[in-house]
Amino acid sequence: MTTTPAEPDQAALEARQAQLQASFDATIARHDRIEPRDWMPDAYRKTLVRQIAQHAHSEIIGMQPEGNWIGRAPSLRRKAILLAKVQDEAGHGLYLYSACETLGVSRAELTELLLAGRQKYSSIFNYPTLSYADVGTIGWLVDGAAICNQVPLCRTSYGPYGRAMIRICKEESFHQRQGFELLMTMMRGTGAQRAMVQESVDRFWWPSLMMFGPPDAESTNSEQSMAWGVKRNSNDELRQKFVDMTVPQAEALGVTLPDPDLRWNEERGHHDFGEPDWEELAAVIRGNGPCNAQRMAHRRAAHDDGAWVREAATAFAARPAPAPTSAPAEATHEEATR
Ligand SMILES: [Fe+2]
Ligand SMILES: [Fe+2]
To answer: Which of 29, 56, 136, 140 has the most CB atoms around it within 10 Å of its CB?
Structure first.
């Protein structure tokens, strides 16, 4: 009796698939890294692309609120600091687009998805920057919240993402310190400057808490991401950590955090705090925040304005190699690495 060739092939395929899945599960279970050439489930790859792309887009769109003040910085020193900070954010975007490319999707495709409104960026960047104090508040609170979110990502299960996060986190801590230093300087200034800081903190406090996403009970992607080791802590855990970290810093600065329910809970060993306005977060995510349209229009214009640079770079990369002029000696370092 003969069997049809399809049968054993199908069985072998399934066995192989089960083996790949088992090896993936074992890597995750021992908190080891998944690398670009390793087999991974499609859903894991998809989740990573979504998360890393959203993170990369946030770094790039996040240049806008602070970039708004580069031309109006109050001193050369402040301008140099702000320029360097905004450039760091561009660098973070590039590391993250590169990490995402290891999953088989190009930066150009990701940019198209953002511009088409099919991928998101962090809701916080849809709020306006109305005074120079906002530069300090963003560094202190927004970069501070980003650090809480991102430090656990240094141990995320996908290798290229985790390694990008290590460098990014170092720079984010520096951003937080520069924001705090700016606010501290203003708090030592005039009454008007102190009022400017307080007004800025009042506007950014709640949106900063929303950066951790919806409450755990309503967070749709969290459970699977935790199981895969993509995410290491829940939204609510990270939000609590941020509040506990920030309250003593606010005291040191001499600003009030605009939450009447904020108080130390001896029993829990944590601060209790009020509920952010989740309706507002949902509205901003839907595209109805104060600056969503402006941010996207600016991003689109920047992309269009940069078309000639991409064309020139592509043409340069595609140029034919120069013909050798004489018998080649040993390759120079430059030629060898071209
Ligand atoms: Fe960043
Ligand atoms: Fe930053």
So the answer is: 140
